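Forgive a beginner's question, but would it be possible to get a protein, spelled out as residues, together with the matching structure tokens, please?
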Amino acid sequence: MKQINDFKIFVVINLGWLGDTLLTGKLCSDIKINYPNSKIVFVASKPFEEVAKGLPDVDEVFGYDKKNFHKGILGVWKFAKNFPYSQKTDCAFVVHSHERSILLSWLIGAKIRISAPLKNSPLNFLITNKIKYTEHMIRNTYKADFNASYLSVLTGKKTNSTMKFSYPNKYDLHVQNELAKENLCGKKIIGICPLAKDNWRSLSPEIVAKFIEICESNSVKTMIVGAGKASDFVAKIKTLTNVQFLDLTNKTTIFELAAFINSCCVFLSVDTGPMHISYSLGQKTVCVFFNKDMIEEWGPKSFNNAKILCNVDEEITPAKLFQECEKFL
């Protein structure tokens, strides 16, 4: 039997959202540090393939279409049947645990299958190495660090890599062309991601509209990014202010989004995927949280280029948001 030190093929399975996928990057970097000659294959939810492709140490990415082609148990079987590393995988890490992902790790024939067990799941027996954790541990450990801890099952140690994200250089040229069309080249721009999946984690249109007006009065332009209902959110903002801003909602790919974020002087975001992209790029990021209990798990506390604001500590006002962004300008 192949020894752990000789492992060559690692498959990382994370079928979560943008932030979940991105925050698996540290695990991938740690694998590469400990197994420099290995190949890291990432299985991501189809909408977030580009996120996985932007993780520096990932060698190959496969999109899992859980809403259509790979839906249900038959879909898991279809994916495993066509997966080129089936029966060749030394170790599979199931991050963002789900029965679908655990079953997939077994169907591709991974010799070692590492996952956090699911409560009362009949499929837990398929996990060869279970991650021991408590709810307190999860809620009080930065998500990227918790994900990276999975590797200690094999190595017995922690590796201090850092979260990074990158994209092909051609996207910078695309962004410069788009900014030129809007006469924004060379101007100070603050990027804004005001909307999360949950309304209680989002900024209000009134706050964002006033923030845009404050920026304009200080000769700073603004752009708004987001997906889904973000377009409706922007439509509301346009009824509250006459100040012009660049609306990029539902208009970018992941790599285009990253390049636009990188073109800003500062990026202001609520706790959602683009926030994690921003600070992982090394961009100066103001992160807004509306639940203090979520900061330990999701907040970039160890990043010097990130500032965390929480409405529990102080009121989140347009003036306060600009004050914190201005420190980075």
